């Protein structure tokens, strides 16, 4: 089985759209407090994605470095879009991370990995984002009265741009597969996707305790 098929299996195993939190999001069952808590926690993941993108740019060279630097600049700008959502749902942009969130941010932005591992982490995250962003946006509009462009901007952008980012990431990774360890790359992808699932576990744990 080739690498891309193995990555699809990992994605299916840790598809966060099957997580109870996102299922309740789509069903309109989240409270305003749960949305606010989630928004503040996931901000740490947004920051980590921007850091991972920047690390990839620094590790590359030539035209690849320029392409990845543009990607990193875009992800850094998306933090502001996410903050618009956080404030709109009453969240805290300075919310302290739960242990699960802290682990997710570390897995996404793990600084000690090499470029192929960072690229596969970015690919795993971004190839899943269009469907996730579309599902979250649809739920916000259908159930929570949130449909203004300023509040849904982060989701609007990621429905479209992460298809392009994932395609770019796949191309950059394919150019570096000679001599790479497919098992290690699959394990890296699984680590970031599992960490996202557990971030949601942490949100549920905290909100259920209040």
Q: How would you describe what is shown here?
A:
The protein has a single domain, classed as Heme Oxygenase, Chain A (Up-down Bundle), CATH 1.20.910.10. The protein is globular and about 50 Å long. The longest helix is centred in the middle third of the chain and has 29 residues, at 115-143. With 210 residues, the chain is mainly α. The chain has helices at residues 3-13, 20-27, 32-59, 62-88, 99-108, 115-143, 149-174, 182-209.
Q: What letter string, H or E per element, gives the SSE order? A: HHHHHHHH
CATH H-level superfamily: Heme oxygenase-like
Number of helical stretches of at least 4 residues: 8
Per CATH, the architecture is Up-down Bundle
Instruction: Report the radius of gyration as a whole number of Å.
Output: 17 Å
Average pLDDT level: 95
State the shape. Answer: globular
Structural class: mainly alpha
Proportion of residues in extended strands: under 5%
Helical residue percent band: over 70%
Q: What is the CATH level 1 assignment?
A: Mainly Alpha
Low-pLDDT runs: none
